[in-house]
């Protein structure tokens, strides 16, 4: 499998359940111990990397750290490695932009409208997948 270029972002905004789905993944770890979080936000979900390649999460495994069980109440200590599988699917940059914009609009409220419109403008002006994921225009 080709190396994943982080950050990653979920695709298929029609299936997103809350604004948490808008957050990129900056590494291969899930910082939670609850199985429900893995199943809701990661398992069998498709992500796009910064080069436009699509991957699906197929499993997670605990990291090797003796302290993780004792200090799992501390943020970032209890983490699990996400296992990705490369898919054969393709998505064009334009289609990815439209998908992310649909996701942003889905969770925009009056309180977040101004920042959402700025974010959407940055996505429309983005020249590559990394810029869309990071919310920056070039």
Notes on the protein architecture:
The chain is an alpha+beta fold. The protein has two domains: 9-86, no CATH class; 93-134, no CATH class. Helix content is 32%, strand content 17%. It contains five helices and five strands. It has helices at 35-41, 67-70, 93-106, 113-125, 129-134, and strands spanning 9-10, 29-30, 46-48, 54-62, 80-86. The chain has a five-stranded antiparallel sheet, with no helix packed on it. A hairpin with a 5-residue loop joins strand 3 (46-48) and strand 4 (54-62). The longest helix has 14 residues, at 93-106. The model has no long low-confidence stretch (mean pLDDT 87).
Question: What's the gist of this structure?
Answer:
The chain is of the alpha+beta class. The protein is built from five helices and five strands, in the order E-E-H-E-E-H-E-H-H-H.
Largest sheet: 5 strands, antiparallel
The count of DSSP E runs of length 2 or more, i.e. the number of strands, is 5
Residue-averaged pLDDT, rounded? 87
Q: Structural class of the helices, strands and pairings?
A: alpha+beta
- List the uncertain runs: none
User: How many angstroms does the end-to-end distance come to?
Assistant: 30 Å
Give the count of helical stretches: 5
Strand order of the largest sheet: 1-3-4-5-2
Sheet-strand content, in percent, reads 15-25%
Instruction: Give the C-alpha Rg.
Output: 16 Å
Order of helices and strands: EEHEEHEHHH
Number of domains: 2
Apparent shape: globular
Q: Helix coverage percent of residues?
A: 25-40%
């Amino acid at each position: 499998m080709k190396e994943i270029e982080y950050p990653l972002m979920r695709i298929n905004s029609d299936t997103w359940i809350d604004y948490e789905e808008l957050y990129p993944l900056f590494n291969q770890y899930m910082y939670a111990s609850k199985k429900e979080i893995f199943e809701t936000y990661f398992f069998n979900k498709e992500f796009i990397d910064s080069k436009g390649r699509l991957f699906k999460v197929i499993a997670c495994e605990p990291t090797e750290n003796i302290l993780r069980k004792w200090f799992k109440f501390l943020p970032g200590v209890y983490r699990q490695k996400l296992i990705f599988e490369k898919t054969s699917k393709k998505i064009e940059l334009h289609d990815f932009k439209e998908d992310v914009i649909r996701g942003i609009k889905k969770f925009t409220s009056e309180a977040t409208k101004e920042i959402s419109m700025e974010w959407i403008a940055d996505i429309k002006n983005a020249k590559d997948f990394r810029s869309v994921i990071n919310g920056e225009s070039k």
